[in-house]
Amino acid sequence: MQIDDLQPIKVVSTPTGTIHRFQQYKDGIPVFGTEILVRIDASQRVRQLNLEHISPARVVTVAADAAQLEPKAAIKAASDAVGVHTLRKKTALPSKTYYPTDKGLKLAYLVMVLTDGPARDWRVIVDAFTGEILAKDDLTLLAEDGEGYVFDPNPVVTSGNNALRAPEATVAACGFAGTAQATIDAERVTRTLKEITKSGTKYKLDGPYVVVQNSPEETNKNNFKYASNQDGFEGVMAYYHVDTIQRYIQSLGITNAHSSKIDVVPHANQTNASYNPGDDTIRLGHSGPCKPDRGEDAEATIHEYGHGIQHDMVPGWGGKNPVTNRYETGAMGEGFGDILACAYFAPEHPFQREVFEDWCFADEGGMRRVDGTKVYPWNIPSGAGGDWLNNVHDDGEIWSAALWNIFLDMGGDDAASLAARLAARGELLRTLILSHTRVSANGTMPDGAEAFLDENHDLAEYRLQHGIEMLNSFHDRGILHCETGSNLKVIELWSQQSESPAVGWQQVEAGQDNWFYARVRNDGTVNARAFVVEFSFKSPFSTPVYPADFRDHIISGAVGYDLAPGATATVKARWPKDLIPAIPTGATVRHGCLFAEVYNPADHVPAGVTTIGASNGKLAQRNTDIVDALPDATVDYFFAISNYHIAKPQLVRFELIRPPRWENLEVTLHHRDPRVIKALREKMTIVRIKEVKPTEVISARPEVRVLEATRVSVGLSPDQPQILINLARGSSIIVPDQPAPAGDEITDITEDFFHQDVDLVSLQEQAFLKLKTGLRVGFPYTMAPRERLTLRVRIKVPQNARPGDKIKVEMVQRDAKGSFIGGFDVLVNVVERHG
Q: What pTM, to 2 d.p., does this model score?
């Protein structure tokens, strides 16, 4: 494919990046159903490529004397295929397209036939030479028998009375009697209709975000007050609820989710509600006998408006996924419409908050629920499985249930705090709506779940603080299913002052955002479909206890996907400047500790664990101090060598890392009992090198991991973010063979691991260990089970240090695989002598 074969169709900017969408062309004609998506993050780095183009783009040959149909003939063929209908609008001239078939691309006409009674938007693909109907699709998004809300949101919810019925219902016709009109009307409330239009001497419901067709008109702008059985009432409800939800979305900082006008027909000639993308219109019809009209229910209107939002943000939303052969974004659209309505009203209206359309379908207990238990068919690539029914409304309940549980876990279930419920609503909807731009028009629910997690991580105010709850919910619904058999470990933990690249430990810089970093390894035998790492910080420091120190005050989280056995991944998360503690007034030191926990629903810290040592590597800590000192003075701190939970002796290495300017910095290890120091030195000498394998030098090259048949992840380096690529149909990728991991077996221990860069110094009754000079020195040590040894580390500030110098010292413990298992950091601030 040549670069000229792509043309941009939409560019969307969000708080976390920019999304570019391109249409594929062949000989200047668009190729149907193709798209290339490029997502660039806020740092101008490519983070995602969706390659939904046709490759190679081969055109089906036709006879040399074959003549193309005239456009009018294509319209007639399309109209005949649709059948006899009243046209809502005159059919426009068709456009040409190349339509993909098994034999190649066929030149065709794309005809839109907009019918009425009920309103339907038919998209018909007609072979440009033969007139054959290649495809016929109804693009209308129906809300099924009964989508709609009335009032704010409806009489059932505001009254807390599930026995209310449409006033016109009779026992003879419906089997139940209707509720008195006065009782229903008593649930009306007065609301402000913002920015309605005055035309001449009359006002009508035409504003910046919604236009009500056949709007009621009033000479007094405050007289749009009707009984609920009057036609004008439904027009007012449509205007108010579309306008209000759009303004709420903009209050979340989202200005690209259908911020233009949308048409609403409050009395459509149809027994349902629909969004019609062909003319960008919401149509609110009847609900069937004995039920209120759809235009009387705010949830019906908001649900359909949700479709309009998605189609505005992602043109063509709802296509069939080429891998699963399912209309997954279509189902996600139905689930989004339900959750948009339910979650929006839930904080202030708790009665039957999980029930969708409980007024129009009061006699049936509501139309749908958002708290179901359906499961996505995660283990079946196509066809039936799980609870998938190939009906977008039924299948949408999988998506809405996952999102509803996230809403509850983020604070939506806090019965005592309205503020917490409102905050949960804002986080859920802001994250969800913005995440749409990360998903292809024909993506999958797992694509949507990853987009949701990534968006929440990138939003500075949220930072994936609820990552564990989110992943649990997507796992429970089968959308991001995590199998048992992985063994995730945090092998390195640090903080640094900038987002990237990963440069290793840096002292925290006050007054600016800093970043948490962790390197995670999968030591298991099963791919880790998804995992989160949650970060926290405690100061003043005391012995960490799980889960309180790791879960009660989470600052930020990070997420990773598809970590193969033996593979590692580096993740990072923002540490906002307002959450970084300063050195207390009058103090010279701030001591604290970084904490990290790696988690997925099938691979997490065992129940009952309270200490890091018993967490099987899933918890990590790193101590840090900020201290002040004078030139030629000494600074002492304490460092513990301990592991109460190992069952057999463990080979470890202790390393001292000095800054480049201070490679001669004097560092010594002390204990009040000199016999302990001498015994430690003797244990070093018994370590023998049984076999040292030469370290293989591998040139840097991209890491390519195949996630699914047409989905791969590319890492340019271990410290750079992965790029997710969704391949085009028919694509292939060649991955070089790689040796299988050897489980827990230790391989390739380098000779450097066994260097003993330490001298024993004995002075009368005193003894201490003096670490040799150099940027990175250390010694091996065999750690005994249940051993605890606390040493005093003494740093002597160089005589030539000057006030303002900052000397960073790191003490790191690593296992025989080279993995980080503990550490302590000190930053010495050299100050001026006074007096």
A: 0.76
